[in-house]
Amino acid sequence: MNTTIKDIIERRSIRKFKPDEVPQALIDEVIEAGLYAANGKGKQAPIIIAVTNPDLRMQIMRDNCRIGGWKEGFDPFYGAPVILIVLAPKDWPNGVYDGSLVMGNLMLAGHALGLGTIWINRAKEEFEEPAYQALLKKLGIEGEYIGIGHCALGYPDGNPPKASARRPNRVYYVS
Q1: pLDDT digits (tens, 9 = 90+) for 124-146
Q2: pTM of the prediction?
Q3: Which residues contact 112 (CB under 8 A, 6 or more apart)?
Q4: H or E element: which one contains 125?
Q5: Range list of H helices, 74-158
Q6: What is the mean pLDDT of the chain?
């Protein structure tokens, strides 16, 4: 089987990560794959914020937990030490689609490199808040952005879950 197709079939969402630091070279390789995602009109509009700072990661965890309605102390990122946040310009009609393709590439690249990933939502709600608008300004990012998703990234703690059976009757051929 082709290795790319094998990675697509075998990748799973990881819900328990080791606290081990991920080498910057691996993070950069995952990000590079994300930047090569297909995109509308070749605009390359989505951006990625790589969070490895433990204090900022903790703040994002608390805010994501609050937005999601979980009990205080729950970690919606399952202990992953890296959070890759994908954003797209609010005024770009293909932003959500392009950003979603970036997220897919990030997750597949992580898997191909022996890392675990999971897409975590609520980036949209986070980046509507003043604190996250201020973060963008602090990073020198101008313009209005919509949060697409968080790619939690790290070393899996345990075996990946088994794949569910694929639901039938999802493909229709027209010849």
Answers
A1: 999 999 999 999 999 999 999 99
A2: 0.97
A3: 3, 7
A4: helix 123-126
A5: 95-112, 123-126, 130-138
A6: 97
